[in-house]
Write a structure and sequence with these properties.
- The complex is a heterodimer of chains A (311) and B (302).
- Chain A is α+β, with helices and mostly antiparallel strands and 311 residues long.
- Chain A has one domain.
- Chain A has seven helices and 13 strands.
- In chain A, the strands form four sheets. Chain A has a seven-stranded mixed sheet with strand order 1-9-8-7-6-5-2, with helices on both faces. Chain A has a two-stranded antiparallel ribbon with strand order 3-4.
- In chain A, a hairpin with a 3-residue loop joins strand 7 and strand 8.
- In chain A, helix 1 runs parallel beside helix 6, helix 2 crosses helix 7 and helix 3 runs antiparallel to helix 4.
- Chain A starts with a helix and ends with a helix.
- In chain B, 24% of the residues are buried.
- Chain B is globular, with a radius of gyration of 23 Å.
- Chain B starts with a helix and ends in an 11-residue tail after the last strand.
- Chain B is mainly beta and 302 residues long.
- Among the domains of chain B are: 47 residues, Nucleic acid-binding proteins (OB fold (Dihydrolipoamide Acetyltransferase, E2P)), CATH 2.40.50.140; 147 residues, SH3 type barrels, CATH 2.30.30.30.
- The chains are: A alpha+beta (311), B mainly beta (302).
- At the A-B interface, loops of A face strand 3 of B.
- Chain A: Belongs to the mitochondrion-specific ribosomal protein mL37 family.
- Chain A: Keywords: Mitochondrion, Ribonucleoprotein, Ribosomal protein, Transit peptide.
- Chain A: It is found in: Mitochondrion.
- Chain A: GO terms for molecular function: structural constituent of ribosome.
Amino acid sequence: VFPGVRQAQWLTKTKLVEGLPPAVQGIMDNPALELQELEERAKHMVSHARLWDTAEAAPRRERYCPVLFENLIHICRLMSGKYPSLSKRMLARNCRVAAMWERESILLQVRGLSGILMNSMSPIPPVSSKEEILATKEHVLETFYPIAPTIDLQEVNVYKELNDTGFRDGYPYSYPHTLFFLESANVRTDRFRPEQLRAKMLMFAFGNALAKAKALHGNDPKVLEQPVVVQSIGTDGQLFQFMVFQLNTTDLVSNDGVKNLVWVDSDQNLYERAQCVPEVKKGVVTKPAGISGFQPDTFKKFLALYLHGTV
Amino acid sequence: AMAALGLCRAFGALLLSAGPRRARPPALPPSPQHWLPGPVSAPAACRGLGGSAPRCTTDPLWKCRTKYTVRPVGMKKTGGRDHTGRLRVRGIGGGHKRRYRMIDFQRLRYEEGAPPEPFTEKVISVRYDPCRSADIALVAGGNRKRWIIATENMQPGNSITNSPHISRMAVSASEGDAYPLGALPVGTLICNLESHPGKGAQYIRAAGTCGMLLRKVNGTAIVQLPSKRHMQVLETCVATVGRVSNVDHNKRVIGKAGRNRWLGKRPHTGLWHRKGGWAGRKIKPLPPMKSYVNLPRVKAVE
């Protein structure tokens, strides 16, 4: 109907900021990280996932998307030699998250398997300063008159209002750190479009953050002293969407007051094309085999988001 | 119930379809066998079961959806056959596959739980519909989306209003809005007209057509249809303002026989007929005005 991110913003009472937050930018620009040699590795990993992984001519998206993701996480984990606190992370797949909130007398909920979740023992520090948080008070959420913001949402009979992070209390890795979404369906119509993927990322990041906040501070709606930050990365194997979501308030009933913040960096290509077989037209090779147009920046952002919170 | 009724009337515009398959579970009772006099034609449904009369093939198989949905629904082609399986209309068959988009002809359909008040909707997109000559528009309002017949200058992003109220002053309606006939000024071009209030639009739906509101009498309104026939309806019947979209539809050139076949039209018979009284231009007086209003017959019977 219209870009899903706008609808998701209204539903979660969020203000959108383009680009990644300065803290993450700082990690990226930090020269101590030696990102040059990691670029080589990243290229190698992309080639492995897209070209070499299969006995047939070209691997299908169902195969190369998770393989690429695994490889990128592997490179990130190699950095834990330098930053020992990186080892205090764990990955969970197919974890079920449930969060429920009320928005202007309409009850909304997020439920479901939230992709791949990475948890850590310590929370991510708030990304924005107090002034920015208070400045969101003046921001006005856009309305979609005459369309109701709950359009295209499924109406479900709920018998239990559930807020669940997916983990029991006392689990050592209790803070949600990053969510990963892999769009790996083979058929293009089954995959989410980029803006739909961003909306899905926003909703699930919000759901995780809200569930964690309610677990920490109780169910009453209020402005959080210590904002909860959850990151999420979504990809379909080539395009990456990065998002940092900061939950400032659980008071979502009214439209005024402090809003939540989200920093979105969208449509980052990791590489332009990956040719398995060189394309030959009239005896001349137009597109040689291999990865072309590799963008190291995208991988740097991926790494920066991974390292965020420990560096 | 209302939705199903509206849908059935919408389907009335399409041909009755009959799938000559009998793989359906035998829930329907078979009709009595007809032994027809004269040459027995081999009907499409015959499966060599012995006997040469058509059994009752199953009802329109694809028209069994009661809930409204915006997604296009797959439809089955009939080839001009009716529910018995025999050919009823000549010249239909083949053509490109089509999916049916459920059009909502009742503009004043309120959502569940919504009060019967004027409401606005926003046009999201206007697209070609393979099942009709006009274009259709996806509009969204409140919590639902629906397809309606687009009017001439409808663009994505417009707002259209639907209102059931009739006031003493005529409303200055803009194109695409839907009002009862009593609320519109005399002389407006309208389309998607209903004959009875709440029935759903059945008139003036083809591409580029428009009717004109001629005069308003007591509680009824008189509309001139595109065939120049006059029609009298209650003034609470809702119509949309403007001409139907795709105005240049009658100016298109088919170009070749193949294009007609893509549209699902089979060739005419090539037999030469001498022209009878049916051919040629006729000049006739207008037929009398068609009235859909049951006026109480005032008879002075003493």
